[in-house]
Amino acid sequence: MPNNDKCLCEPTEILIFPCSGGSNVGQITNAVAIELTKHGKDKMYCLAGIGAHENALIESTKTAKRIIAIDGCPVKCARKTLEHAGFDVNTHIVVTELGITKSHELDVNDEDIKVVVEHLE
Ligand code: SF4
Hints:
Blueprint: E1 14-18, H1 24-39, E2 43-44, H2 47-51, H3 55-62, E3 66-71, H4 77-84, E4 91-94, H5 110-120
Parallel strand pairs: 1-2, 1-3, 3-4
Helix pairs in contact: 1-5
Bound molecules: iron/sulfur cluster.
């Protein structure tokens, strides 16, 4: 049943934006965002839509309680995309800064996902 007492202007969710890049560390960001969304605390959201300046996605992001950007490497595409659209990033992590080396293999292992998830919890 909908909660009609809730002000729709209030920020509602913690949104996670992974860079989802074409490398192991980029794909780790994607896997981490999925994992956190499945845990139910946060919600994976669409970085590409922000980059495309899609109005509906921009407006939804404005209602976020917090914005988390997860980047695979120091190029920081997720953070830069959000900032170019005018958003302040509340939490930002870079996977390579957690001791995981970037490669162009797309295999992602559970241990690396766990390291990043634990860093965010
Ligand atoms: S931050 Fe690094 S891994 Fe992620 S999309 Fe940009 S270049 Fe690729």
